[in-house]
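Section: Multi-chain targets

For targets with more than one molecule, the full set of components is provided together so that the structure can be written out for the assembly as a whole rather than chain by chain. Components appear in the order listed by the source. The example entry contains two components.
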Amino acid sequence: MKLFEYKAKELMKRHGIPVPRGVVVSAPEQITGLSAPAMVKAQVLTGGRGKAGGIRPADTVEAARAVSSEVLGMEIRGYSVKEVLLEDRLNVAKEIYLGATVDRSRKSILFMASPDGGVDIESVPEDRILMVSVDPLIGYQAYVGRRIASFVGLEGEQAAQCAAICGRLYELTKEEDAELAEINPLVVTKDGQVIAGDGKVTIDSDSLFRHDDLAQLKEDLTPLEEKARALDIAFVQLDGNIGVIANGAGLTMATLDSINTFGGKAGVFLDLGGTDDPEKVKQAMLLMTEAEPKVILVNIFGGITKCDTVAAGLLEAMEERGIGSPIVARIKGVNEEHAREMLRNAGMKPASGLSEAAQLASQESLG
Amino acid sequence: MSVIVDKDTKVVVQGITGYQGTYHSKAMMDFGTSVVAGVTPGKGGQEVHGVPVFDTVSEAVAQTGANTSCVFVPAPFTMSAVLEAVDADVATVVTVTEHVPVHDAIRFVAVAKAHGVTLIGPNCPGLGAPGTAKVGILPNKIFKQGDVGVVSRSGTLTYEIVNAMSEAGIGQSTCVGIGGDRIPGTGFIEVLKRFQEDPDTKRIVLVGEIGGTAEEEASEFIKGEVTKPVVAYIAGRTAPPGKRMGHAGAIIARGRGTADSKIGALEASGARVARLPTDVPGLLAE
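Its structure, encoded as tokens over all components, is:
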């Protein structure tokens, strides 16, 4: 779950990382207690805010109000700006990149640092980036911060501040269950302060059971994606016209790949996951019909999920709401005979294999 | 022969009194697995399918000689359950539970490795060796005894492919589902190494998916160390970048983890890559 900049900075502040004084508003009238000069920053969960005109300076409080009213309501890469963060403007002497992330290959927390901050880290040459992974059994030690501070070219008091920030960023990453905690730029001001100019934090959604404060935050989802979230269903809207329901991420992706081979294109990726509850299957079907696909392809390989459970949920959904789209169903695994009989009795023609089902659904979607 | 499990595998099921634990203990026993104990704190003294339940893993190990744990406990308690199994000196831990926090996984994966424990998962279907033992939740009906070793990051997609192989008359030595999470206890390379050493495994099937670089790293290993023929399939060829496809691991982020990169690396290693999951048996037969 990606956090807005102001929320990320709130966490940083809580963990002892210096951030500029700021206020978040959704309307210019709400601006109080601000001192100029300030920066006005659009709060959207996408990169490229600066280039899109979503980050602007304001020399007076009056100007800050005027700029805020322009930025609020802007569209940045498809996201509309609902809030702006107004902050004290920093006197920048130097910009550093500092990030901590979960590294799949090394199975640990990885620090990345560069003296070339303030730009997209992807565009920085490799020899200008330091990577330090923290052995999970050793944990963070002060030398990690010292290595980083030295690599980014800091000395004396600034090196000490930077090293301390590294330790606090590690703490934040572990304690808040962050997948990514990034400060870009980490600013050294002309009066020698090291302070977070920007903040990006992504929280592991599997950890929300132990973060009540974060669990309440709203994510930027489409209305259907939000409903799916509540049902614990993985639901992704794509640009084709076949609605794919399967169980398991790998199988659902393989089903998408298979229809693609026969010229079809998926409009919805719906991973039912493991369930033994017909009600969940029914809700998933109803959700799918709301996305109005031309054809629905159901591909289930039952293990934890029983085939007849899926068939029952499918039929209940059809009974409750006449489903307009034709359905191609391929159901295999535990209790498959019973499931196929249920579907046949309801007048459906179950497909026997994955390729056959993919071909049928694709033909139907193109015709 | 088989890998990771053998005739001496004795399983303790952590979370045996829960719905999934009870159901799959029975299925494992039906497969022929020796399930010797269960653990649920506070339920010691009970029985499930005639299997004694203990309060702690160390009691279960001491009383029954269990050497392999299968973990079904809910995600918030998974780290503690895995650490308990490692501390009780079992040789192998199979963690089925999904939605385990990634920082918990980083910790218990490191601890298991330091203790020399083979950890499969989290978020995995486990492994099955037809005629020997199954630890996990793979459906019993899909297997057929044979000489192909299967290693996969997926769950149901593994069932699909193994089932298609069995229907085509191609059997398996061992099928290992390493799980789709970002921090798996055991990766492709460790399993490939075991298949290469196993005299009863003659051919290998590798099932990967988008996200991460595990398939690219496996390709390097195949190129240098694996002499047995490898057939691969990669799911997610048509998945759009930036969208998380179902679980934590499956995402193309910052241009990395694409199907094209993985398919290219595997082909360069000498593996044959199937276009569709149903094409795997055909490529094995060639």
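The mean pLDDT of chain A is 92.
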